[in-house]
Amino acid sequence: ATMPPLLCAIANAGRHGVLVKSAVVMERLGQVDAVALDKTGTLTEGTPRVTELRPLDGVTAEQLLALAAAAEHGSEHPLGRAVVAAARGRGLPLPPAEGFTATPGVGVRALVDGSVVAVGAPGPHRSRGPAAAPVAELEQAGRTAVVVLRDGEPAGVLGLADRPRGQAAAAVRALAVLTGRPPVLLTGDNPRAADRLAREVGLTDVRGGLLPHDKLAAVRDLAAGGHRVLMVGDGVNDAPALAAAHSGVAMGRAGADLALETADAVVVRDELAAVPAVVALSRRARRLVV
Ligand code: ADP
Ligand code: MG
């Protein structure tokens, strides 16, 4: 017997390094006419590095990094991994932490040496208090600024930077051609870092500072406008948007388990070019089916 076109397409997608979870998913991928892309880990390599340490009064740079790394120890977020790697790279002993919790799109919190240590998005500390100046300086430079709080008081700010994937600009162009409109960028990162990355990969519709439910709302808005949305993401914060999209695709290498489980397809080989490739494969298969 000859293989049905959609099953052939799934096999071909596998050759491109994409795990498509069903024939229905394979068919839907070709129907999309709008694309929403996450930033960190999707358009960027997802291996950010700590580039600046800005300790505040009474804290040394090494204490700041050790404190942040202790709190991030259980984190599966690229930023958390970067903080832990930076501390390890300097050979810093990490104080033990307990009671780790992560809030998608916001940050993490844990009990370190009897203090509650929180590491995450600046929030209200962007506009007031001792962290405001270093946050402004780092964000102006296009960094992701992360504030470290000890018992609610700012202990310092970390700057992090991630590189766009080599294939990001080409994949953005290919998706724009396939769907007839430029993709939109949805990110929890600050608008300045988002704008800088957007310029580098050729995107103009950029929404920064989004929480997971804001990403979901953006996908729903596109759908309400009559679009069939392809969402591409990698984080726990992307899961609601991945679930709501017509097709949800997760980046697999550094992707959070929840994102991989929620998505309809997973890019197993770490190449963004595979995303437009599977949309094109689906279209070709659909022409054979009908
Ligand atoms: P993106 O949408 O670009 O993938 P996220 O929504 O995952 O980004 O994160 C948004 C922001 O929340 C980050 O820029 C950071 O400020 C903060 N954040 C989230 N998780 C962490 C973490 N584990 N450590 C520090 N900051 C975090
Ligand atoms: Mg992400």
Automatic annotation (TrEMBL):
It is found in: Cell membrane. Keywords: ATP-binding, Cell membrane, Magnesium, Membrane, Metal-binding, Nucleotide-binding, Translocase, Transmembrane, Transmembrane helix. It comes from the Bacteria. The keyword Membrane applies. Coiled coil: none annotated. Belongs to the cation transport ATPase (P-type) (TC 3.A.3) family. Type IB subfamily. This is Heavy metal translocating P-type ATPase. The lineage of its organism: Bacteria, Bacillati, Actinomycetota, Actinomycetes, Kitasatosporales. The chain holds residues 308 to 597 of 662 of the full protein.
